[in-house]
Amino acid sequence: MMSSLIAQLITRKNESVIKAQLPPFVIHFFKTVTLPTIGILVFLLFWTVGANNIDTSLGKFPGPAQVMTQVGNLYNEHVESRAKESAFYERQDNRNQARLAKDPNYQVKTRTYTGRETFVDQIFTSLITVLSGFLVAAVIAIPLGIAIGLSKSLNTAVNPIIQIFKPVSPLAWLPLVTMVVSAVYTSTDPMFAKSFIVSMITVTLCCIWPMVINTSVGVASLNSDWVNVSKVLRLPALTHIQKIVLPASIPAIFTGMRLSLGIAWMVLIAAEMLAQNPGLGKFVWDEFQNGSSDSLSRIMTAVIVIGLIGFLLDRTMLQLQRVLSWDKTTEVR
């Protein structure tokens, strides 16, 4: 026991000596670049070894090399599709100009290009959908969470409803949302496609609960001294919320927002697969149904892209929290 304790003390002492000798930027570079790079390389090694030892009905499981090949193929398909779209509109404009030259009274007809959405198109479709549903949920959930946190009576009244609907999978709402949207959204010239509305509402439903709960907990756990100062100064309700409640609750609010956005991104992909709505989920399902020799590598490419986008969304929320938080010394992960 004594020898192990002495060994730990010597190790810690050596670590502190090494840190004292190294410049701070070297230590920072090691933590932020070197360690993640090592982790990624180890993951790629295990992925490559595992892929080479897995045989499926469609061939070998795709490794990093096959995924990189498909990244290039999918981008080239997108470029070719944009070129076809440009050529389509160019031919249409030339045709309309020729008809107008012959007949100045001709009513110009403009048709929309109906080519198949590419992988890049479906990435942007899913991003627009998830951000739209997330923003709608934030507009609803954050004010509601603040109100619940400030009022014990409202918390008592609303809490049973939150606890009942919080465990419900958002995918369970999908059939109901689809039927309601189909019944209510009956415009002959809709501003948004029904598939977009269905996916957005599904995302909103899964985002609301974590934001409401975290916001209300953050508001309810305010420092009592700050609340007393507000009472002494007799701040109006809106000023109290603006100057005291919101700054103090930002960490809890953003924790709920980050949780909600991560859950929303996962749910959206599954919803797109089930409902066959445009987006990355539909791309994955279509490739699975296609069953070609490239399907596995294209699906794996989509999986990696979905993960990278989820990571970037979380990092974006983290940076936004750092900008808006009043306590710049607090470490957020």
From TrEMBL:
What SUPFAM superfamilies does the record tag this protein with? Answer: MetI-like
Do you know which Gene3D superfamilies this protein is assigned to?
MetI-like
- UniProt membrane topology term: Multi-pass membrane protein
Name of one Pfam family that matches: BPD_transp_1
Q: Which residues form the ABC transmembrane type-1 domain?
A: 123-317
Primary location class? membrane
What the entry lists under InterPro entries is as follows: MetI-like (IPR000515), MetI-like_sf (IPR035906)
**Could you tell me the superkingdom of the organism this chain comes from?**
Bacteria
State its location(s). Cell membrane
Name the residues that span the membrane. 29-49, 123-150, 171-188, 200-223, 244-275, 295-313
Q: Which UniProt keywords apply?
A: Cell membrane, Membrane, Transmembrane, Transmembrane helix, Transport
| Family assignment from sequence similarity | Belongs to the binding-protein-dependent transport system permease family.
Q: What is this protein called?
A: ABC transporter permease
What organism is this sequence from?
A: Psychrosphaera aquimarina
